[in-house]
Design a protein that fits this description.
Chain lengths: 218, 218
């Protein structure tokens, strides 16, 4: 599969725009754990993920983390290049959750395309609205849901992404997704284990009763 | 001042687009407290505020409220017509905080303009990014800041909007801005009063020491 197949509005570009885009691309690979873009960092380019998984996170002043959304195969990382839209006045950090391969589109090339093409500008609108929707959802969870509900929902989401109920994840990592502390997550998971919903072992959470977690997480 | 003066990219529209826009406008006025758009409601049109003040809020399942951003003279209420961007998958309620006059642009007219004009599409991008930035800021406050810091920041923002330190606002209203309960706000304000930062009277909070509130709110 080539860039042309991955870029959703390829057919709506004019030939000179397609050429400009292809000529400017670089293909890159990063390892799991790599910071693809730091907060307050440069604005090299938008990424189109060929394969892998990224997460967007924000930090508190004390260094706590929270995941605000995730990106998968075929997704575009717009906030990897927030400078393409000047009104974006916040910084997210983008980290690879898995080994990830992507095309990088230079910011100025993308900005030119947006200025020229209503199709590209409207597509960018839709992209931003998707991320906005995810952040609103995350915010509503954070504001109104208790920690046990949020942990339950997170475990089910992980199981769905990984396609297994045996999750290789530490309590620390769960805390960093949910903006919490390791101790709080450990206590919550032990309660779940006490209720027979999960089994805990070193670096691993096994879901035993997804139905019960789901009922809790709603 | 006419619509032409208020609409920021008027000069970037073509004559037929300008005419289409003007022909479709309606001018309306609502009273303070009115719900301009309910969550899950229709998608009649985008509003351009001539004069007044709106707030965008979300509700918890138990009916608690939180203000996620505010709009003032000259602002456009994009989320009054979320249907213009299909990837917007969340609902906000828009309420008038003051008597408000606005022009309403029908959704389908605006959608046509976006599809035709890269300028309108990119302007819409900037609008959405501004709201997104405000929501991110609000979310970070909610996630990482204690209630006393948030109340202090809110009082200072109110003073700045109203141009006075004598704020006509109930504890209930502050709770509804901050996603909290009246009792919590009353306790916090009494602590502030005990520290000499504010004076409380019926339906009123007077700021005595803005410097101290500011130091607290950071």
């Amino acid at each position: 599969m080539s860039f042309q197949n991955f870029f959703p509005i390829w057919d709506q570009l004019q030939p000179h725009q397609q050429r400009q885009l292809l000529d400017s691309l670089t293909f890159q690979a990063v390892k799991r754990g790599a910071i693809v873009r730091g907060g307050n960092a440069d604005c090299a380019g938008l990424l189109l993920i060929r394969t892998g998984q990224l997460r967007a996170l924000v930090y508190s002043e004390e260094g706590r983390e929270i995941t605000i959304y995730r990106l998968f195969d075929g997704d575009i990382c717009l906030f990897c290049a927030p400078c393409v839209i000047s009104a974006i006045q916040f910084d997210v950090t983008i980290q690879a959750e898995k080994d990830t391969e992507f095309w990088s589109i230079p910011s100025e090339v993308y900005q030119n395309l947006m200025a020229e093409s209503a199709a590209v500008a409207n597509y960018t609108n839709e992209l931003m609205a998707s991320r906005f929707s995810e952040v609103m959802n995350r915010m509503e969870q954070f504001m109104w849901k208790s920690m046990d509900k949020r942990v339950a929902a997170f475990l089910l989401q992980e199981a769905s992404i990984e396609g297994t109920r045996e999750l290789r994840i530490t309590h620390e990592a769960i805390a960093n997704h949910l903006g919490s502390h390791r101790e709080v997550i450990t206590r919550t998971l032990r309660d779940f284990q006490g209720a027979g919903m999960v089994k805990l072992s070193r670096g691993m959470v096994t879901i035993l009763e997804p139905g019960k977690l789901e009922a809790l997480g709603i």
